[in-house]
Amino acid sequence: MKPATALPAQKNTRASDISDSQLRGLFGYNLKRSFSALQVDLLEVLSKFDLRMVPFSTLVMIVENPGLRQSQLADALAIERPNLVVVLDALERRELITRDRVPTDRRAYALRATLAGHQLFEKAYRAVQTHEARYLDRLTTAEREALSSALNKIRATFEETGE
Amino acid sequence: MKPATALPAQKNTRASDISDSQLRGLFGYNLKRSFSALQVDLLEVLSKFDLRMVPFSTLVMIVENPGLRQSQLADALAIERPNLVVVLDALERRELITRDRVPTDRRAYALRATLAGHQLFEKAYRAVQTHEARYLDRLTTAEREALSSALNKIRATFEETGE
DNA sequence: ATATAATAGATATGCAACATAACTATAATA
DNA sequence: TATTATAGTTATGTTGCATATCTATTATAT
Fold first, then answer.
1. Site from A36, A68, A134, A154 to mutate, B interface, most B CB atoms within 10 angstroms
2. Cα B56 versus chain centre, distance
3. Residue B68 to residue A83: CA distance in whole angstroms
4. With pLDDT > 70 as the criterion, what percentage of chain A qualifies?
5. CA(A109)–C1'(D28) in Å?
6. FRET label pair with B19: which of A56, A69, A133, A152, CA 20 to 30 Å apart?
């Protein structure tokens, strides 16, 4: 490979004055960094219940929508059906949910949470709410509403064309 | 495995009325869904420049901070040093950046963008700004400020303890 | 009625993001 | 000068996410 030359006559950056204002000027970058930081804490909270983000969301959806089909669930969570299968396998192995045969459609399964599943949901959901309060408490009501509305608009912007 | 039984007497959820209000009540979930939707669009924009999110961020940082060391860069981007190595390898192979020996510390490399690197940065950064305008234009000034402030508070909440 | 197409779920597989342990070479320090 | 720490690298593993393809079953189209 021929040696690519850097632009000449550039002052070196010293350790002290590293700047990321170009990236900080991008909304998406801030969104990613904030979410990543939040996620570390959330994963720690969920780990007490042997859950990760997708299995937790899955359990929440099944508790809220008993009898749900796997395809419907994958759709609602915006995850691929093959990936949901392994998540459900794990939840079923832990006897948190059941896959019940649907009499009217023998291809499909109706998903339901067991008693243990409901109990785990209650505890985990409350723990997540506590985790959320950690940062939501620092926001003003106006900020919370603006944030909520902004996130919805962002989602709407990209999901309307993307789906 | 003994058959786990679902809770009895539950009305099945019909296709039409699947609800995700429990998840929507969680801020982190909305954040994740919005970011995922945004990311699809962003990746498409970056793909025109043969870039992904981390290589793009890396290039931006090197352009803004010529002479930067790899460790400093990994720190600033909050990515692991080993993962940065392969990103830099690829950028160097494309002659977008150079790794220059540092005379005062022969372990270290000073990272600099080549002319091609600067040019790609200019084009890609503008394209990303256009992408961002797609959703930022739909937000009110108040929403934009609240979102910005909220994201910073979220990051502060979790990075102050986490680092 | 039967052939064809579509759907529900599962399996296999691959890529990308991210993390850790351990190595080489240098530099800092005790 | 011996020890420790640091910069970069290599190897490797895990998780998240996507696609192609398979089966069993159901819907539809002639």
1. A154
2. 9
3. 40
4. 88
5. 23
6. A133
Report chain A's mean pLDDT, rounded to a whole number: 89
Which segments of chain B does DSSP mark as H helices, in order?
21-24, 27-47, 53-64, 70-77, 81-93, 115-136, 141-162
CA-wise closest residue to A56 among A132, A2, A110, A4: A132
Within the 30-89 window of chain A, which residues sit less than 8 Å (CB to CB) from chain B? 30-42, 53, 57, 60-61, 63-69, 72, 76, 78
Distance CA A158, CA A98 (A): 34
B133 interface with A at CB cutoff 8 Å: no
Give me the count of residues in chain B: 163
Give dist(CA A93, CA B31) in Å, integer.
30
Cα–Cα distance measured from residue A61 to residue A113, given in angstroms and rounded to the nearest whole number: 10
Query: What tokens appear for B3 in the block?
Result: 């058959």
Summarize pLDDT for A70-89 with one digit per residue, the tens: 999 999 999 999 999 999 99
Q: Which amino acid is at B44?
A: E
Tokens representing A118 are 């409901």
CATH assignment, A28-162: 1.10.10.10
pLDDT tens digits for range A128-140? 999 999 999 999 9
Cα–Cα dist B44/B130, whole Å: 13
Place of tokens 């093959």: A82
The pLDDT, as a whole number, for residue B17 is 80
Q: Looking at domain B30-162, which CATH architecture does it have? A: Orthogonal Bundle (1.10)
- pLDDT single digits (tens) B86-115: 999 999 999 999 999 999 999 999 999 999
Mean pLDDT of A78-102: 97
